[in-house]
């Protein structure tokens, strides 16, 4: 059930100006019956000025009269056409003052390790503005040299589930656009739990690229040329008798 605006002040007015039961007033204003009794006794909401729900288009006098005659009848909040379609204000996530100085470090971490995230996603995760994100992306932030990337989850700026959800959303968007991703980029787009369970793939260093097709034969008979052994290399031909006589 929706509560009226300024619920406690409305309860004060109903206590002072109607004969409604404490339960009826409590149910309508979202208060406990004993709290309404405390208002009547002057122990609760001392100094609070009553807020007229009839004048402020929250109740009709006929509704109040009917409820006064029947203690079991509940008050119904008046329909307000002006409130139809009203949405909650959307904006950056609120960040406590003690953690606002950590936001640049978390932004740099997200930009570095999850470049697929949009500025809007980063803004929602850590509660910052797009100009700040853009300045860190372009390394034009006034303190860019003094910022060290730190995981926003470790800083308490967002939950791991929220970060994983944003990364998964970015992955689906890239897949829909048909973008080609490397193995490292694909690994970044999965959740932390999935990434830890993945097997690391062996990679060939760039310095020896092209040798992946090189193989050594196990069968020496396939090599061309005569087969050599160590003894044949050290057994030199014997010198003839004439050559021995010529030596001094």
TrEMBL record:
Annotated segments matching region Disordered: 185-248
One Pfam short name: TrcR
Cited InterPro entries: TrcR
Biased composition (Acidic residues): 220-230
Name this polypeptide is given: Cytoplasmic protein
Organism: Thalassobacter stenotrophicus DSM 16310
